[in-house]
Design brief:
Region (Disordered): 1-21
Organism: Caulobacter zeae
Radius of gyration: 21 Å
Distance between the termini: 41 Å
Shape: globular
Strand content: 5-15%
Number of domains: 2
Protein name: Class I SAM-dependent methyltransferase
Pfam families: Methyltransf_25
Number of helices: 15
CATH topology of the largest domain: Rossmann fold
Low-confidence stretches: 376-391
CATH superfamily of the largest domain: Vaccinia Virus protein VP39
Strand order of the largest sheet: 1-4-3-2-5-6-8-7
Largest sheet: 8 strands, mixed
Keywords: Methyltransferase, S-adenosyl-L-methionine, Transferase
Order of helices and strands: HHHHEHHHEHEHEEHEHHHEHHE
């Protein structure tokens, strides 16, 4: 699908000049060229050159993604691909930061005003320890990481994340960067038999992209988004107010929140788990079980496990571990999440992986009138068959229900 969406404006989205916008569009187009022009060449390069070189050196064919990587890193074509990918990643942040550096004082004042007028709560504790797996590295090569702060009431990394995610995803997260949230909302509509949660919690919400669709789908529900990064939470609160939605945000660790046991009917996360650690994941699953009321659902939308992929696809995806500051990317895919959910107390028969079709793909296929929750009724009511759209047309979701 050719992406024709532009990011929808809102009061605290950074406003690039003409030249800044052109540079940002270049970075998006550069990433599209890499994905569409360079990436398809890796398969033939491996089959024709790298695999044969590996066999000559080792006396056997490459057996897994690690063998494939050891063969490919020596090939000039792969080196060109990997270098271009890393350069594109750094360019998207740099091109966006120019705008934020110029506008930051004004953006902070706008955020303060929006938050002051918001009906939703903003909970920022005076003392908070951000987990080391977030602070020790600039994840996704994002300058300052998710939680970096440069000034009081800072929202700079939130603003950078908001614009940067649109460029990183080449627009395929939709005009509000909320495709994961909308996709899971459509899944809830389609598969959970009239389930109507009264309290909803989004773990690792960053700037609330995926949080807001739950308030649109369930307007009477109390919705919370939590994240370990204060600049993200501040930005999320102001962004929601600017978009006219009453959503609560708090700085909390998904491993151990400050909410009472049994206080939520639906707990979700969107690409959170692979940003944590091997020690954190079991704690997050345990906390979800503690926080859910009986009959409540836990839904984590993240990366599909490696065991369902061929070794070459594993190798391609694992390049994020090596070249994009994603240290837990590969290890998370090898973690037995079903076992973690069972160990946390979820009944075995309630735990499963499934696919939530990408809302943006469904809207285009259905020629829906607009990309919003109001336009999703016809989409969410119909049946979906895996493989109906292009590969990558669905989000992998782990679902469990508390007894």
């Amino acid at each position: 699908m050719l992406n024709t969406f532009q990011q929808v404006d809102h009061p605290i989205l950074p406003k690039p000049t003409h030249d800044e916008a052109s540079r940002q569009e270049f970075t998006k187009s550069f990433k599209q060229f890499i994905q569409q022009g360079l990436l398809p060449g890796l398969g033939p390069v491996f089959g024709v050159r790298a695999a044969k070189a590996f066999e000559r050196e080792h006396g056997r064919a490459p057996a897994d993604r690690r063998d494939i990587r050891s063969a490919m890193v020596k090939d000039l074509y792969f080196q060109h691909y990997a270098a271009a990918n890393r350069i594109a990643q750094e360019l998207l942040w740099e091109s966006t930061n120019v705008t934020i550096d110029r506008e930051l004082p004004e953006l902070i004042e706008k955020a303060r005003g929006l938050s002051a007028s918001a009906k939703g709560k903003l909970d920022l504790p005076e003392e908070f320890e951000t987990p080391r797996y977030v602070t020790s590295i600039d994840i996704h090569c994002m300058p300052g990481g998710y939680a970096g702060a440069v000034t009081p009431d800072d929202i700079s990394t939130g603003a950078l994340y908001d614009r940067g995610v649109y460029l990183y995803a080449m627009g395929y997260m939709g005009p509000f960067n909320d495709d994961m949230g909308r996709s899971v909302c459509n899944y809830v509509n389609r598969r959970l038999d009239g389930f109507k949660p009264k309290r909803i919690l989004d773990l690792g919400c960053t700037v609330g992209h995926s949080t807001l669709p739950y308030k649109e789908l369930f307007p009477e529900a109390e919705v919370w988004g939590v994240d370990v990064a204060a600049p993200q939470v501040r930005y999320a609160h102001a962004r929601a107010a600017g978009l006219g939605l009453e959503v609560n945000f708090a700085q909390m660790n998904a491993e151990e929140t400050r909410f009472e046991a049994g206080s939520f009917d639906l707990i979700v996360s969107h690409i959170l788990l692979h940003e944590t650690s091997g020690k954190a994941m079991p704690r997050i699953f345990n906390e979800c079980h503690r926080l859910l009321a009986p009959g409540g659902y836990m839904i984590h939308a993240d990366l599909p496990p490696f065991d369902n992929m061929d070794p070459f696809t594993q190798f391609i995806l694992d390049n994020e571990t090596w070249y994009n500051n994603e240290p837990f990317w590969g290890a998370m895919r090898e973690t037995d999440q079903v076992a973690l959910a069972k160990a946390a107390g979820f009944p075995p028969e309630s735990v499963k992986f499934d696919t939530a079709p990408m809302a943006i793909m469904e809207f285009v296929a259905q020629q829906a009138a607009g990309y919003s929750q109001d336009a999703s009724a016809a989409v969410s009511d119909r049946e979906f068959a895996a493989g109906e759209y292009a590969p990558g047309g669905g989000w992998e979701v782990l679902i469990a229900r508390k007894a």
